[in-house]
Amino acid sequence: MQKSWRLLVPAVVLLLLPLISSAQFGISLSVNVNVAPPELPVYEEPPLPAVGYIFVPGYWFWDTDASDYVWIPGTWVQAPQPGYLWTPGYWGSEGGAYLWHAGYWGPTIGFYGGVNYGFGYTGGGYEGGYWQGGQFFYNRAVVNIGTTNVTNVYVKNVTVNNVTVNRVSFNGPGGVQARPTEAQLAAEKEHHLPPSSEQAKQAETARGNPDLRAKANGGHPTIAATPKPAVFKGAGVVQARGAPAHPAAEHPAAAEHTAPVEHPAATRPEPAHAAAPAHPAAPVHPAAPAAHPAAPAEEPRRPPAEAVHPAPAPVERRAPPAKPAPEPKPAPRPEEHPEPRGA
Question: Which residues, 6+ apart, have CB-to-CB distance to 307 below 8 Å?
Fold first, then answer.
């Protein structure tokens, strides 16, 4: 009975190993998709945030809940321990389906499908830097040092083809035709560490952003890389070339619609002042030009009508002085009296 248990335990462990790996990596190793992942987007590497950080390139991940590929932005992270480098994960085409091979940390870069992720990950190995004496040395020719004060640097020109027409993101038929070398196969047998909790947080944050889904961005994510894990806003966030404008870009357009308010203040009053000298009555109704923007074009036809309206007002005011006019009538009466007297 004890023998059977001893034989059964290793078998159970082997069965649970994929599940344990899935929990550690935050990405299922058993993902089997019938749709090829989109091409890798073109984007710039954010500046190095601090000494000791290593850039982990972005990748496409299949979100079962959304039934779509989601872009996990590249970011800067710290190695789990000195001397360890990151081997990116990759999609492999096998039997008409696409299987995800998760990435890992290890003392040597392993096989990652020959996929050119850029930024030192040219398809085989890593050209962005190396460990020596517990310190990481950066290759300025590949790494965006930015304004960070780094003393351990060197320059090694590397053929990095980040901008290509075909940026295939998977290995196998229809994709990158690459096979692991003996050194890469040996690296797979070394001690490995899964993605850090920061990397898992980066992936989880990306999955919660609908804009990073392939169907929404057409393969051009608005957040292609971040300065640090789970930091999706602010300085250092990079978007892919050809990415759709951020929702925030619509606000300036909305502000432009308010510009017509300036027209009444800037253009309408001027015609009103110009018309004032010719028609004294116009100042009495200054609101008229502002209320009717088209008034300036019709003003030439309205002057006669406007002249008629003001005219009655003066006549009514002069009416009282005009009343004395009947007074002269008594004058003829004296003339009429003499006539009877003469008679």
Answer: 279
Q: Let me know if residue 275 belongs to a domain.
A: no
pTM of this structure? 0.64
DSSP string, 57-122: --EEEEETTTTEEEEE-EEEEE-SSTT-EEE--EEEEETTEEEEE--EEESS----TT---BTTBS
Domain extent, residue 226, equals 28-252
Spatial separation of the C-alpha atoms in residues 271 and 282, rounded to whole Å: 11
- pLDDT tens digits along 107-161: 999 999 999 999 999 999 999 999 999 999 999 999 999 999 999 999 998 765 4
Cα distances from 179 to residues 103, 111, 184, 321, in angstroms, run 17, 8, 9, 115
Kindly state the helix (H) or strand (E) to which residue 78 belongs, with its residue range: strand 74-78
Structure tokens at 17: 């190993």
- Domain presence at residue 282: no
